[in-house]
Amino acid sequence: MRHTLSVLLQNKPGVLSRVTGLFSGRGFNIESLSVATTLEKEVSCLTLVTSGDNAIIEQITKQLHKLIDVIKVTDMSEHEYVEREMAIIRVKAEAGTRAEVLRVIDIFRGKVVDVSPKTYAVEITGNANKIQAVIDILRPIGIQEIVRTGTAAMTRAIK
Amino acid sequence: MQITGAQALLKCLKEQNVSCIFGFPGGAVIDIYDELLKDKEITHVLVRHEQAAVHAADAYARTKGDVGVALATSGPGATNTVTGIASAYLDSIPMVVFTGQVPTALIGNDAFQEVDIVGITRPCTKHNYLVKDVNDLIPTIREAFHIARTGRPGPVLIDLPKDVMVAKVTFTENAPVKMRTYRPNYEPHSGQIEKACKAIFKAKKPVLYAGGGVIASKASKELTELAKKLNIPVTMTLMGLGGFPGTDPLSMGMLGMHGTYYANMAVANCDMLIAVGARFDDRVTGKISAFAPHAKIIHIDIDPSSISKNVKVDIPIVADCKNALAGINAWLDKTKEFNVKEQAAIHEPWLAQIKEWKTEHPLGYIEETDVIKPQFVVQKLHELTGGDAIITTEVGQNQMWAAQFYHFNKPNHFMTSGGLGVMGYGFPAAIGAQMAAPDKVVIDIAGDGSIQMNIQELATARQYKCPVKIAILNNSYLGMVRQWQELFYNKQYSATVLDVAPDFVKLAEAYGAVGLRATKPSEVEPVIKEALATNNTVIMDFVISREEGVYPMVPAGKATTEMLLV
To answer: Residue A99, Cβ neighbours under 10 Å: how many?
Structure first.
């Protein structure tokens, strides 16, 4: 099962390498990873998407917690949460398809961030499924390049 | 007052009660050595290879019950420490290793003798540091010692660039280490203790399974109290030997691949397994699905990640072993709901069953009159030292025979590279143990293959007048691999025949040590007696039966009940 983990870390050199080294060394898989500082500049928040059965996820969270620089590990799957990923996609946009691309982007609430005579670069945000859906729709038109950020996630506030 | 980084390092070591360190100099650490020469309070033991420094610090830590310290230079000095660090990591030994580093301005430039030792040792240290600013030096050292000795102990590495050792810093008084993230839990949860105790009262066939955590947390007394109180038989891992008296009637010795028949049968048939400071290593469990298949499992461990890592645990207790066992004992003393004496009596038929297994297949070997059996040598070592020596081992058959036949009654008397299985561990470890306990008899039980991995340390032993005894069980083979080849590879002895070997007696003499040899069983006792009476480093070369194997043996991946017996 897919799990999204949110990991608070000390913002120090080499900490990310400890986390990724832990995953590679113990044979766990990282599907996506994004990291940036939080309101406190000494603390970074890392969002990591991985998969495995309950025993594997339990080991992953325990092993992460064992790292000296890890402050807190939250398995988002145990909570209500929002997650977003951003992708920038360069897609062919020639005379016959320019309008089509704009229509698709509009449906997915994306926007064009770069234009050339033959292409658009479009920005899409959403969860991984939505990004995948956009890619699947644009692929027949002709995708030239994709960059994706990896997931960022936050628990929903208690209402 | 402003002092140099090197001076601050020594002040910090003294603050941590370090009086002995093991190391080897080099360009990047000359400033530290310069200060060490002037210092009268810290003994520096000059090893002949950095790997030996770490193993010696490892056994020194185990003997003293505190942090061991090793020092190496940058580049090759640092990389030579990796095996020792990895061994200490898998065996949870408290240790701080200092390595030299090229000046900060050169880091990343592929400078002479530069290596990213922090990167290299990241997966095999509890934590590690590169100190880039001299102002971070003192708090880093204090934090490193705190991390090494608390929680589940382990090795911590600090990489010290040369310019940081020269730079000036103000020494501040020792303050308690405050860490935002690292707070090991020592106290057991009272609800879990109660749950565990109630489950124990439901069991008719319980087994205590004690690991190295019992020794690390100094919990032998509490473990023994629990075993005696409820009449529970005890089996120990390789790292746990000595955690419970090996000669006690409740002791079943070691379990697992080369464990006793009765320990493995007991675990396979028990209805309650109480694991204390043990991590269910594959050498213990064999095929996981067949390990303790009928048992409820209670697992006491200070490291939450050890719980349910290899086997599913029913009642976890995350705490220091000593506190958890004390908690259980206290609960048993207080309970009115359950009768402890009655419960102890309920276990009698179970103990009788184990006794029957013991009689059926005792730990033993076939004696011969003309060739020396290695087990006989270990038994004689036990007898002639009164079971009171500190025994270190190399890795392989020698290690298993030592574990099986030197019945350890006290903790911290058996030192071996359990988790990593390092050939070459035993001899430097013996030097480390002897430096920590000058009055004890220290014996390295070695094989002829493994002793050659760090034999250069004869010079170290002689230089520091360490009267350690090395008992080589010499079969001119890499015996354990040969045994596997014999059993599972159709006797294809590929690369395990050691026909070209040094004359160990002459080799000892070349270093100014004493060399003795026994080739017949009748010579074993006189050789050991002479070695014990000699106040010098001694090699005892026991020419043993060449094809002797270690039994019982559970083939890798099989159930622990599928033992090959003698």
So the answer is: 10
Over the stretch B388-427, which tens digit does the pLDDT of each residue have? 999 999 999 999 999 999 999 999 999 999 999 999 999 9
With contacts defined as CB-CB under 8 Å, which chain B residues touch A63?
Answer: 305
CA distances from B42 to B22, B53, B161, B314 (A): 10, 15, 22, 48
Do residues B197 and B156 lie in contact, with contact meaning Cβ atoms separated by under 8 Å? no
> What's the per-residue H, E or C state across B206-258?
EEEEECHHHHHCCCHHHHHHHHHHHCCCEEECCCCCCCCCCCCCCEEEECCCC
Please count the other Cβ atoms lying within 10 Å of the Cβ belonging to residue B497: 12
Q: Which of A23, A68, A69, A72 to mutate to test the interface with B (most CBs of B within 10 A)?
A: A68
Structure ipTM over 0.85, yes or no: yes
**Which residues of A sit within 8 Å Cβ distance of B?**
10, 14, 17-18, 21-22, 25, 55, 58-59, 62-63, 65-66, 68-71
- Helix pair angle (A15-25, A54-66), 10° resolution: 140
pTM of the model: 0.96
Task: Give the percent of chain B with pLDDT over 70.
Answer: 100
Give Cα B22 to chain centroid, integer Å: 18
Residue whose tokens read 């270990």? B378
Q: What is the dihedral of CA B77, B78, B79, B83, to 10 degrees?
A: 100
Are A71 and B180 inside 8 Å of each other by CB? yes
C-alpha distances (whole Å) from A125 to each of A82, A120, A131 are 12, 16, 7
Of B179, B303, B308, the CB nearest to A58: B308
User: Between β-strands B20-23 and B234-236, what pairing exists: parallel, antiparallel or unpaired?
Assistant: unpaired
A13 preceded by a cis bond (ω within 30 of 0): no
> Coil, strand or helix: which one is B533?
helix
CA distance B306 to A63: 9
pLDDT of B174 reads 84
Q: How far apart are CA B85 and CA B159, in angstroms?
A: 14
Place of tokens 């002791």: B251
Closest CA to B225 of B118, B332, B374, B106: B332
Are the beta carbons of B55 and B87 closer than 8 angstroms? yes
- Could A63 and B147 be called an inter-chain contact, meaning their C-beta atoms sit closer than 8 Å? no
pLDDT greater than 80 at residue B566: no
> What does the buried/exposed string (b/e) look like for B279-304 if buried means 16 or more CB atoms within 10 Å of the residue's CB?
bbbebbbbbeeebbeebbbbbbbbbb
Dihedral pair phi/psi, residue A80, rounded to 5°:
-80, 130
Kindly determine whether residue B304 and residue A65, on different chains, have CB atoms separated by under 8 Å: yes
Burial of B522: CB neighbours in 10 Å, binned 0-12, 13-18, 19+: exposed
**B560 DSSP 8-state letter:** T
Q: Are A122 and A89 in contact (CB under 8 A)?
A: yes
Q: Give residues with Cβ within 8 angstroms of B395, minimum separation 6.
A: B416, B417, B421, B422, B423, B425, B426, B450, B480
Tokens 């628990």 correspond to: A155
How many alpha carbons fall within 13 Å on the CB side of residue B145?
Answer: 22
Q: Taking a C-beta distance cutoff of 8 angstroms, is the pair B152, B159 a contact?
A: no
Q: In what order do the strands lie in the sheet with B20-23?
A: B43-46, B20-23, B68-72, B95-101, B155-161, B127-130
> Which phi and psi (to 5°) does residue B58 adopt?
-60, -55
